[in-house]
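ok new one. same drill as before - structure tokens go in, u give me an amino acid for every spot. 305 of them this time. try not to just spam alanines like last time pls lmao
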């Protein structure tokens, strides 16, 4: 297996605070890996260590074969980085931003025009070359920022919550582009809060409180993390009835999802017993990634208790 990223017990402390705790990662080259978790979970800190921006407090790692401790500058020569703030220059035009980043990445003048044209086509910004960035919609800014991040044709691309504040349609179009980049051989690591984006990743790394809870494909996580049968229950006043349902001996977990309850049962016989108790027939469902994350977080809490 050809891995673009490997880490062993990689940790980062800020004073007494442990931001990332003993991270062990193996991310295949040419894949899209989603870093998923709440704010403060350690996603951005982990990403910045992998970029060579932050020095690890302990542990080891390699990115594209380069050691994080001894060859961080070599890593930077091969990566692209995009943050949720887009890192664009508002007063410059679309073309001037692309030209600036081409110069920043030391792209030779003889190649620069063709590379900029390629980025304009990729981002569907043709005809907007003279527009100043502050006039663009969030979705157009997002695609321009991606063009600036990949104009050097990086082998690995780090995207730190790049779809915050843009429309669902723009988010879907953006993910189409990064999946195309991965298909061409680039490794993409993207942090996100959106479950629909995580579904489109090859692998998902679930983070919580600085710990990596799981790393696997969306399908494998759904099938392997929850032990039992998951049922959905549509009943009046679900919040008021959660505690009573959770206390039933055949129920392992009960959680609220919008106006519906998701109930994890030990066995199929629990379906009939749940219907008797609530007066409503539960429906068997496939777990969502949100179900997976909540189950992983609960298991972690039980370990720490």
């Amino acid at each position: 297996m050809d891995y673009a990223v490997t880490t062993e017990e990689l940790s980062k402390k800020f004073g007494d605070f442990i931001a990332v705790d003993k991270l062990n990662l193996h991310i295949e080259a040419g894949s899209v890996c989603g870093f998923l978790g709440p704010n403060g979970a350690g996603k951005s800190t982990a990403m910045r260590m992998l970029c060579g921006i932050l020095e690890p407090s302990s542990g080891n790692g390699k990115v594209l074969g380069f050691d994080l401790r001894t060859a961080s500058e070599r890593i930077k020569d091969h990566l692209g980085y995009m943050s949720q703030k887009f890192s664009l220059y508002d007063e410059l035009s679309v073309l001037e931003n692309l030209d600036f980043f081409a110069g920043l990445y030391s792209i030779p003048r003889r190649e620069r025009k063709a590379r900029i044209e390629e980025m304009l086509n990729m981002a569907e910004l043709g005809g907007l070359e003279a527009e100043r960035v502050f006039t663009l919609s969030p979705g157009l800014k997002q695609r321009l920022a991606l063009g600036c991040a990949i104009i050097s044709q990086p082998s690995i691309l780090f995207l730190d919550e790049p779809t915050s504040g843009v429309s669902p349609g723009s988010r879907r179009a953006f993910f189409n582009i990064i999946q195309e980049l991965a298909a061409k051989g680039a490794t993409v690591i993207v942090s996100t809060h959106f479950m629909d984006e995580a579904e489109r990743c090859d692998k998902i790394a679930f983070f919580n409180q600085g710990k990596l809870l799981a790393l696997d494909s969306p399908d494998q996580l759904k099938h392997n993390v929850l032990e039992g049968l998951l049922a959905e229950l549509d009943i009046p006043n679900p919040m008021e009835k959660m505690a009573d349902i959770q206390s039933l001996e055949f129920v392992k977990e009960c959680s609220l999802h919008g106006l519906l309850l998701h109930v994890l049962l030990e066995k199929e016989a629990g379906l009939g017993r749940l219907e008797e108790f609530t007066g409503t027939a539960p429906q068997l469902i496939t777990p969502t990634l949100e179900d997976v994350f909540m189950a992983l977080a609960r298991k972690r809490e039980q370990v720490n208790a």
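The two ends are 37 Å apart (CA to CA). and btw The mean pLDDT is 91.
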